[in-house]
Design brief:
The chain has about 450 residues and is an all-alpha fold. The chain folds into 2 domains: about 1-235, no CATH class; about 265-450, no CATH class. About 75% of the residues lie in helices and about 0% in strands. It has 22 helices and no strands. The chain is globular. It starts with a helix and ends in a 7-residue tail after the last helix.
């Protein structure tokens, strides 16, 4: 065990954990297409997960990201320099905030479900009561991996991911293999989530001081509210895409096409997010800024050397893979995935990590508003111009690129932090050019492995 721990630090542990989720859901997506379900039924599963995400992702992300720079570095508890041996009241109060928002969404959902029953019906949202129960249970358990992270239990993050995602895969696909209805897979998802809740309670008792602090929660929300709004506006681009596609086409089959394609290359999304979140605490003090920027530059360069070539290879074979991985009915999804693969370009630049770590979260909110103001009208224009659902994906790439450029500009002109301080600019430029050329060649069928 000790030897294995040496190969996994907090950054790689969180990256591996966050990589497991899209990989497992990819296996689940493949299983859905290989069983007895129709494309419309697959669209219902996608809609279930889509709605669960759209009502929770922004406040879960905002609360957790704002916890990381506040851990042992806040005005309420003032435990600067704590070595991690003391139990943390910060984590416990973050859990209370997550639980509060979960209960709030659950209650509002039940209160409004009859009022908006026609909306639920038109969007083909299945099993609304189970959906609300899943939202209630699933959001607080997102804290588990960060409890391990903040207590330097890096290998436990990886170990927890292996156990929990393996159980999730089995409990979702086994009912389908036995010929059961889709609802039994939802029961399996709820079972795994309940198991995670039990483990969360164990960790809270082990690592946290169960001390309620209204003052800390106020401080947490003061820092976290701009992040919540930022994530709602900016991070919702893919959810906004789904809403647009669902509203314009009102076809669960079309929605399934889009959702199966509107997935970033899992390695890119999870490894980039894992690096960013794991580095947040390191930017919380001014004394470590130079060291931390050099570290994130070196770490991101290593990611680029691995992820850009991997993404290029994946893009070349995408149109060949999609109909074989799923079924021929999902060929159209390949073109959407190709565009989403290009999001690697803005993903592997990390100005937001420095800005959030320095607690300047209102700047990320401004960037998010800018993205929103561009994304919705541009998506609708793309549809009007005849690009259809592919145009919706293209607008997402454009707004992500603009938003990240805004944050880079803020660091450069307002904080006097040059891009070269935290970005391996030459390596990034070369790889971005290469993947852009490959995309153009594939799009024009010059490279066509079909």
């Amino acid at each position: 065990m000790l030897k294995r721990i040496k190969f996994i630090d907090n950054i790689s542990g969180l990256q591996l954990f966050q990589l497991m989720k899209p990989v497992i859901f990819l296996f689940i997506s493949i299983a859905l297409t290989k069983n007895h379900l129709t494309r419309a039924e697959i669209g219902q599963w996608e809609m279930f997960m889509f709605i669960a995400g759209i009502f929770t992702f922004f406040w879960v992300t905002g609360i957790i990201q704002s916890l990381l720079p506040l851990y042992h570095r806040n005005n309420t508890f003032r435990k600067i320099g704590n070595n991690g041996t003391q139990k943390s009241p910060e984590i416990y109060n973050a859990f209370l905030l997550l639980s509060f928002f979960s209960v709030l969404v659950f209650i509002l959902g039940h209160a409004l479900k009859n009022t908006f029953s026609s909306v639920y019906s038109s969007m083909n949202i299945p099993h609304i009561n189970l959906l609300l129960f899943y939202i209630l249970l699933s959001s607080p358990v997102c804290l588990i991996e960060y409890i391990y992270l903040l207590n330097n239990r890096s290998y436990r993050i990886f170990q927890y991911g292996i156990y929990t995602y393996s159980a999730q895969l089995l409990l979702i696909i086994v009912p389908l293999a036995l010929g059961k209805d889709l609802v039994w897979s939802i029961y399996g998802l709820l079972t795994v989530t309940a198991m995670r809740w039990v483990w969360l309670i164990v960790l809270l008792r082990r690592y946290t001081e169960m001390k309620i602090s209204v003052e800390f929660m106020k401080e947490h929300l003061y820092l976290g509210l701009p992040l919540i709004l930022t994530t709602l506006i900016s991070g919702s681009a893919q959810y906004t895409d789904g809403v647009i596609v669902s509203a314009v086409y009102r076809d669960p089959g079309m929605f399934a096409w889009f959702r199966y394609g509107a997935k970033e290359f899992p390695l890119v999304l999870m490894l980039a997010n894992g690096l960013s979140n794991a580095m947040l605490p390191e930017f919380s003090t001014r004394e470590r800024m130079v060291e931390s920027m050099a570290k994130i530059r070196n770490k991101s360069e290593k990611l680029m050397h691995f992820l850009f070539p991997t993404a290029i290879i994946m893009m070349v074979f995408t149109r060949w893979i999609y109909p074989r991985m799923f079924n021929p009915d999902f060929q159209k999804s390949a073109d959407i995935f190709l565009i989403y693969s290009m999001l690697i370009i803005p993903r592997l630049v990390f100005p937001q990590t420095i800005i959030i770590g320095r607690k300047k979260t209102r700047i990320t909110l401004i960037a998010a508003i800018l993205e929103l103001l561009i994304n919705i009208p541009l998506s609708l224009l793309m549809i009007k111009w005849g690009y259809n659902i592919v145009g919706v994906a293209l607008s997402t790439f454009i707004v992500y690129f603009i938003g990240k450029a805004f944050l880079v500009g803020y660091l450069w002109f307002k904080m006097r932090i040059k891009p070269t301080d935290y970005i391996p600019v030459r390596v990034f430029a070369i790889y971005s050019f290469l993947i852009g050329i490959v995309f153009i060649l594939i799009d024009h069928r010059i490279i066509d492995i079909h």
